[in-house]
Amino acid sequence: MLVDSPAVDRLVEAFRRLPGIGKRSAERLALHVLSAPADLAAGLSHAIEDARRRVKRCSVCRNLTEDDPCRVCADDRRDHRTICVVEAPAGAMAIERGGAYRGVYFVLHGVISPLEGVGPDELGIDALVKRVEEEGIEEVIVATNATVEGESTAMYLSRQLTPLGARVSRIAHGVPMGGGLEFADDVTLGHALQGRTTL
Amino acid sequence: MSMTCNGFRGLAPTEFRPGPGVNVIRGGNAQGKTSLLEALLYLVTSKSHRTNSEADLMQYGQRGFQIRAAFQRNDREVRIEANWWDNAKRFKVNDVAQTRISDILGKVHLVFFSPEDVDLVRGSAAQRRRFLDMEISQIAPAYLHALQQYRQALRQRNELLRRPPVDPVQLDVWDAQLAAHGETVQAERDGFVNQLNTWAADVYSRIADGEPLRLRYRPDIRAGATFTDVLRNARGSDLRQGVTTRGPHRDEVEIEVAERDARRFGSQGQQRTAALALKFAELELIRARCDEYPLLLLDDVLSELDADRSQRMFGALNGAVQVILTTTDLTDHDGLYGADCTFFRIQEGRLDTD
Ligand SMILES: [Zn+2]
After folding, report:
1. At B17, is the pLDDT very low, low, confident or very high (cuts 50, 70, 90)?
2. B172-205 core/surface letters (b: 16 or more CB in 10 A; e: else)
3. B306 near B269, Cβ under 8 Å?
4. ipTM of this complex > 0.85?
5. Which domain holds residue A39?
6. What's the gap in Å between the CA of A119 and the closest CA on chain B?
7. Which of B214, B268, B317, B319 keeps 20 to 30 A from B151, CA to CA?
């Protein structure tokens, strides 16, 4: 026990529910919030509540946004016939940082995982199917992670979308650019070799 | 090789410098012989054969333990350090902290034989699969990856099966994942068992005076069958039972001695010798893949074999293998161990040269 206070215990527990926060970090954060001037706590809780209230899911792509539809979905200069499917907003952010992609997104907020009770319904896949059916989508690029769940989700999407006439492609997983082969782990290198292309 | 350890089991702070060839550690029961081997096993694999909890490895009244060793691998030195402190496990290889403990696998190879290993022959198919998984993971990192992916896909598919109504398209995609990784698992197991068979048969017949031994990999999904077809055909029973009934998680390795199933018909002596032959075969297999012999740890093996078999066992050992052998037998009757052995004695956790 950190301090003899159920309120502090509840705060530590709340921090622990955040990703990447273990018991020690949660205790450190809680102690910091409690020993710092009161406006830190007030500012923090206000910022969290305010952001949570303003930010919602885009009704088109499910990405997080203050405006609906989001900036990407509302941009006429982008290619609305190409959709990149990502597991999480962070994936779309990473691809945007790259700057090379001109299409739009669809954010699953997860992957198919029976163990966590997540199926196609929880991922809004019916909405994606509807978009492909109604909007003449030419290509769907599936950029889920290279886990069994990510691969299964990619294949599930392909099974649902290919019959609708869309080209469904999978991003390549392999050796990072600029990284020497000697720095890639054996498994990544194996994948990169399997996914080799003809020159 | 040289090793030091502190706070481990009942061992006093120990420095251990075995010689090349056969090293014999003599001591009574519960004096620390097995703990010494266990410390080496833990250092090289991050696991103990006796427990899954590091707290059990800690000396009573201590907060942690430390094991360090330097190994000669071909022409390089590999230093490994294991630290257990305040419920945290830390490994360093050549002074570099290892972020993923699984990365230490394969840095140094080691083969361990203990009396319980007779279960490899006598026990369930699951024990033989565990043996394959442990050993192949040591020499083929791609195998460990495929196995982990296969197991995860299997857990997911089983969970899906448990929650009717089951979407057939979702079953299809998990089938495809099982097939992709399961085929890799089968191919590696097939190659491993075939190689192991060649060497195990040779060693076994040398120790058992000409008696034949044969290993056969019996994949649940037989060679030539299409993985996804088998899963599809089993789908009805999978749905009824709520579990995936076919695949590498149901594989078997058959062990025959004198042309009979050793598991059901083998004598104690045949089963023990067969288990030992598997381990000796692994030495050759690792040498073939890695160009050097692993360290061989033999815990209390002589109590398992009669004098003739013990003698022939030493005869079957390649002189280039560094062996650490424990025994409760305090004498060297009939010069069993050969001339160039190094002897140690262990008493109440204290190791001395003998
Ligand atoms: Zn949007």
Report:
1. very high
2. bbbbbbbbbbbbbbbebbeebbebbbebbbbbbb
3. yes
4. no
5. 12-54
6. 9
7. B214
Task: Give the H/E segment covering residue B316.
Answer: helix B307-316
In A, which residues are within 8 Å of B181 by CB distance? 148
- Provide the phi-psi class of B289: left if phi over 0, else alpha when psi is between -120 and 50, else beta: alpha
- Contact (Cβ atoms closer than 8 angstroms) between residue B254 and residue B291: no
User: Cα B90 to the chain's mean position, in Å?
Assistant: 22
* Whole-prediction pTM: 0.82
- B155 to chain A: nearest residue by CA? A115
Indicate whether A84 and A155 sit together in one domain: yes
Q: Which residues pair with B254 in a beta bridge?
A: B216
B141 contact residues in A (CB cutoff 8 A): 185-187
Contact A187 B141 (CB under 8 A): yes
Q: What is the largest CA-CA distance in chain B?
A: 71
Q: Is the peptide bond before A69 cis (omega within 30 degrees of 0)?
A: yes
Q: Which residues of chain A have a CB within 8 Å of the CB of B180?
A: 151
Q: Bridge partners of B110?
A: B295
Residues A103 and A144 in one domain: yes
Indicate whether A76 and A135 sit together in one domain. Answer: yes
Residue of A nearest to B149 (CA): A148
